[in-house]
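Researcher: Re-running this chain for the archive, since the previous output was lost when a drive failed. Same request as before.
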Amino acid sequence: MTAPVPPLPPLTDAEAACAAALASLPGMTPVRLTRVLAGASPIEAWLALRSGEHAVDPDGRFRGAARRSCPDHVLGAYREHRITVLLHGRAGYPPALLGDPGAPAVLFALGDPSAAGGRDGVAVVGTRSATPYGCQVASELGRDLARAGIAVISGLAVGIDGAAHAGAVRAQAGTAPVAVVGTGLDVVYPAESRGLWEALRITGVIFSESPLGTRPNPRVFPARNRIIAGLARVVVVVESHVSGGALTTAEAAARRGITVCAVPGSVRSPASRGTNGLLVDGCVPVRDAEDVLVAVALAGRGRDAPAPLPRSGSLVAARRSSRRARGSAAVAAPSRDRAVPSLSAVETRVLSVVDDVPTSIETVLARSGLGLPDVAYACDRLVESGVLRSGEGWWARA
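Model: Regenerated structure tokens:
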């Protein structure tokens, strides 16, 4: 009989300080951070960057910033805001993300990280431009799921996300809620959600992979959605427009084999066009918390309810086909008065799945079928070659 693998110990203060300092370096994206920490402890990675000897940073682009930064001071700022620094694979890191291909190397937590320790979390997501009907349904789902012992996961945005979390908080004796945000944990966004943020800090946990001071950026939120999906056993989309950001969470879940459910809405409501499209795609319809609990029970027994299977007539399928067509067109005509450098097989594969418009890391991983380190390295090489341009968590053809 194989002996159980003992859990890794919590981070030491020195390790937490270096991990936070690495994540806080100017220009350090989550993808680059994963590469920097691959096969190295935070202390080893920090010392290598600071000395200019890290293999991932041969040109020393981070050396100057690392020499001007003090890890102890950085950690002090996080502790001043009552934020815990978590490292992939170490104690306290959410277990549901350990096997996830897009899991962040460093995660910050405001509140109690153990609130995300179970595997029966349900993500309740949807549009910011929610209708009263959608907000009421989301609030009731959040309340009833929390009372049933389910951790309600969402993005703390206004609209559906906020309504679901407000319902979970009102459950009081229910399971602690979990949020994942795209800003630094010292930047409350939206500002009107400050009371809800404080409630989750006290009763649950808020996660972010963004360092302190990170302001809202629309391009970051699709990357944030992969973490929401990765934490959940089931994803429920309450309301979504046909191009709504909640659909990126549903797509991320479907790629991971996670059950996706949708709440039916009026065929005349623009806020329900995306969710009704998901139902056409074969997602599980949800009327109340009982339907969600059935989906959770099935998933827990390894009998997942159907994930989205695009059909030719659905709005969501049309949306995906349109994106694929843009990507194919870009591959078919790579010459844009620019000489394309000699590329490796992995770089060619990555380039073929990146669109002219910003393409999130989640999309690149899913389309290429490659692991995060390979994608990160290839994208960095393609950016250096001038073939791609990059931003926070995305790439696009140059």
